[in-house]
Design brief:
By secondary structure, the protein is mostly helical. It has one domain (about 10-460). Helix content is about 80%, strand content about 0%. It has helices at about 10-45, 50-85, 90-115, 115-125, 130-145, 145-160, 165-185, 195-220, 240-270, 275-290, 290-310, 315-340, 355-370, 370-385, 390-415, 420-445, 460-500. The chain is globular. The termini are far apart. The relative contact order is 0.13.
């Protein structure tokens, strides 16, 4: 099929291994998405304007999440490759850099949410009814980005070295905490104050603090190769800063551009009214239930592509990259079918006007039709990113979004009186063009490269590699001797049997 190089076939062992890596991450994301759905249903009890205000706030927070994702994913590439190359000191230095860079970049986003909530809400829609909920939600939820960023970087490092089960366990506790405190603080149950929208933000903040506490405790008690002492956090050599920045900075810029593009596209759709904002929020939480596949594919790609690249097993990495694209396309058919079915169920759970429910259901069905396209594009992005081909990934991701998607949707939104469904369809159809570009960039194979060769090997690493090589040679020699001994014993036995 056209989704992958036909020379690399899927086999049962590969699929089983990918599922072993991906399923814990997908379950963690499913739990998170389910809780987001429950949160939005709770907020939905407060009315359409409450949903709209929270939706506008969350679109702004895409910028903060973009910083977190860009930095953590950029450094995770190096963590995975250095782990594959057995260079522990470089793994630690890459992890330190991810934490420091995330904190430096996330603080301005948090400060803006605290100081300028009205300006942020008015950017998306000038309806005065949205300002009240926006003012209550933005400052508190903004603070939550700080513990979320540290936790995300740490859990990303866990996944990069192959541990996807621990983040799943942490996610279970985090989301349960979120649900409980949202229930208590939004509606004021069991003696807690009734805070409304602010209660949803406070529940999120409490949950993120719990998540950070658990993540830090697990790393402290565990034996992760990236764990580092706090006093060593700023011990990051220039070569690591240079190499990681060269690759992760474009990824971070890409995520920022992508996050701002998502905010802009939401603004364009919002030109058709506040009902559209509410329907888009329902679409987002519903589709997140089925976009869990992407987090699993990302974790699997780090392990089956990035780690072999770091170990200089380029042909293995190349084959796995193409297999992942094919595998993702098969999975997408199943998830698309489930998404279509969900359009008849999930929107009905909201206490909003019937026209908002109908609009949201139609959006979900359109998403399900294009699901295969989205999945192929996402997996191509992960494949390009796995080898540090950040230029190509930026071209096909945020570059395409700003140069093609947004201009086309803007023309439809501002220069026509077409319905929101036509405008929305235009925004989705351009992803088909993007898929052709994505597959072309993957087949150029600029991602098939080892990134660890640009960083100097320390004396400790050289000694460790020498010891490993000596152990391997000793093991090989022992195997040869054992084989020779076995052959000799077999010869003696054969002679004995012959003489009998």
């Amino acid at each position: 099929m056209f989704f992958a190089n036909k020379g690399y076939k899927l086999d049962r062992a590969f699929v089983k291994y990918v599922f072993h890596i991906a399923i814990p991450m997908m379950l963690a994301q499913l739990i998170t998405s389910s809780v987001n759905l429950i949160d939005n249903i709770m907020v939905g009890q407060l009315g359409g304007l409450a949903i709209g205000g929270v939706a506008a706030s969350n679109r702004y927070f895409y910028l903060g999440l973009a910083v977190i994702v860009g930095v953590s994913n950029g450094t995770a590439i190096f963590i995975a490759q250095f782990f594959g190359a057995k260079r522990q000191s470089k793994v630690q230095e890459s992890f330190r850099l991810s934490i420091i860079a995330t904190l430096i970049l996330i603080v301005p986003v948090v400060l803006a949410a605290i100081l300028f909530p009205d300006t942020i809400i008015r950017f998306f829609n000038k309806d005065p009814g949205l300002l009240t909920s926006g003012r209550a939600y933005l400052p508190i939820a903004g603070i939550a980005l700080i513990p979320q960023g540290i936790s995300f970087c740490t859990q990303s490092a866990m996944r990069a070295v192959g541990d996807t089960k621990t983040p799943l366990k942490i996610a279970v506790v985090t989301v349960l905490t979120n649900v409980v405190f949202n229930y208590l603080l939004i509606f004021g149950h069991f003696g807690f104050p009734r805070m409304g929208v602010a209660g949803a933000a406070a529940g999120t903040l409490i949950a993120r603090i719990v998540e950070l506490t658990l993540t830090g405790w697990v790393v402290y008690r565990g034996s992760y190769c990236f764990s580092t002492r706090i006093r060593d956090m700023f011990k990051i050599p220039r070569d690591i800063v240079r190499e990681v920045s060269n690759k992760s900075l474009p990824l971070t810029i890409n995520e920022l551009l992508y996050g701002s593009a998502m905010a802009m596209i939401f603004k364009l759709y919002a030109t058709r009214g506040t009902d559209v904002m509410a329907a888009m929020t329902i679409l987002g939480t519903n589709s997140d239930l089925f976009f869990i596949i992407y987090s699993g594919l990302a974790a699997a790609t780090f392990v089956v592509v990035s780690q072999p690249l770091g170990a200089n097993k380029l042909e293995e990495a190349r084959a796995n990259g193409y297999r992942m694209i094919r595998f993702s396309s098969y999975l997408s058919v199943i998830f698309a079918s489930l998404m279509f079915v969900s359009s008849f169920i999930v929107p009905e759970s909201y206490q909003v006007a019937p026209e908002i429910k109908s609009m949201a259901a139609t959006f979900v069905r359109i998403y399900s039709v294009f699901y295969l396209v989205y999945t192929t594009n996402v997996q191509c992005f992960y494949t390009l990113r796995s080898g540090g081909d950040t230029k190509s990934s930026m071209i096909m991701d945020s570059g395409f979004f700003w140069l093609i998607n947004i201009p086309m949707v803007a023309i439809a939104a501002y220069l026509t009186d077409w319905s929101i469904f036509v405008v929305f369809l235009i925004g989705q159809f351009v992803d088909v063009i993007k898929m052709g570009l994505a597959l072309y960039l993957v087949r150029r194979e600029g991602w098939v490269k080892n990134l660890t060769t640009g960083c100097a090997i320390t004396d400790a690493e050289a000694d460790a590699q020498a010891d490993a090589q000596a152990d391997a040679e000793a093991g090989a020699q022992a195997e040869v001797q054992a084989g020779a001994q076995a052959d000799a014993q077999a010869g003696v036995k054969a002679d004995s049997e012959a003489s009998v």
